[in-house]
Input
Amino acid sequence: MKKITLKITINGRKHTLRIDPNLRLLDLLRDELRLTGTKEGCGIGECGACTVILDGRAVNACLILAGQCNGREVVTIEGLTGKDDLHPLQQAFIDHGAVQCGFCTPGMIMSAAALLDQNPTPTEEDIREAISGNLCRCTGYTQIVEAIQAVADDN
Amino acid sequence: MIPFNLVRAESLEEALDLLDRQPPDVKIIAGGTDLLVELRSLSPREKGPGIVLDITPIDELKGIEDNGSTITIGPLTTHREIAASPIIREHAPLLSTACSTIGATQHRNIATIGGNVINGSPAADSVPALIVLDAEAVFKSKNGERVSPLKEIFVKPYRTDIKEDEILTALRFERLPEGARSSFIKLGRRNALAISRMNIAVIIVLEGNTIVEARISPGSATPLPDRIKAAEKILIGNEPSEELFRRAGKEVSGEMINRSGIRWSTPYKQPVIAALTTRALREAVEKR
Output
């Protein structure tokens, strides 16, 4: 197995890395770069816990090889904000009690952020559609939808 | 994950060269939403591909073109792009609908129509829509080009006739004629992120109030994707009616049993595929 060179922008920072070719984007983020905000749930693209934004679109980091992201731009939950302040979505999730165990939260927020980037004024149906690939086992969907709606209403 | 080497092809020529040199050892990756799950499920003792060939950088395999009569879709076009395409929405709306039902947003953003076809799943949602559009598949290798009716590339579930040195380079079909109406309905275990239990694609063409052309293809119902000509015949020459659509639905379920045999799922699938067919035909007529 020959290592490959990967040039990738993560949360605005450019990296040039030597990586194993069988590394998933999720492994790169969590194990190599210690960006552990992105979670691994099912590992087969069913739960959405590993959702990140790749070139402006929400994707499951468990279903894409890191080597396929050459020259591309990734935003993770860590890259959503500056150092101290929270992103409006993060604050809204707190305010609306949309976090229970918290495991799905980073993925939910990344799906919501990708939606609001594309469509700043979504309907409730748009919001439900956008997070339909994200499972919450605490089943707090109502609060999650309300939190996203609140941020959309401010737009 | 099992070890392999990753080759990122920058051009079609480069990819075809590699496939020509060491074909049996190479597995092509596009969106990767099926392949990565498959590779991760292999135990370290099993033999995986020596080389995974990433074709996603190849721009000439992307995009949708309309030359006024024929629509050509590059195999690397994502389901999101097809679902949102004004060309597809106008001239093949059922394909737009089919692609919009696949997986969730995260999958539709990277999964490709070429992958959906070549993976060969009987539950693939884009396939019945492409079958009723009478689509053709174009393959290229170092030795030239091969064009095949899409229907004929399917050998058995999860197996197509693509050769080890070939790449699918285009899917193409004629625009739907004036007066054509179409519908695609998917039935999954839930609405979001489900693999189809069954689906159905229909096109009918009306002249006045008479059906002059009909094309019906059910998904996850027969071992190989196909049009159900016997059900189409029932419709042609007649005026749309609930009773006629019920007869066509019954014919589809009968044909499903002829081809697939009686299986554990038959008591469920038999009435449901008939109802889906009837519903899709009704929806097609009511839509304009």
About this structure: The mean pLDDT of chain A is 96. The longest helix of chain A spans residues 105-118. Residues 4-79 of chain A form a domain with the Ubiquitin-like (UB roll) fold (CATH 3.10.20.30). Chain A touches chain B at residues 1-2, 4, 20-22, 24, 43-46, 48, 51, 54, 57-60, 62-65, 67-68, 70, 111, 114, 129-130, 132-134 (CB under 8 Å).
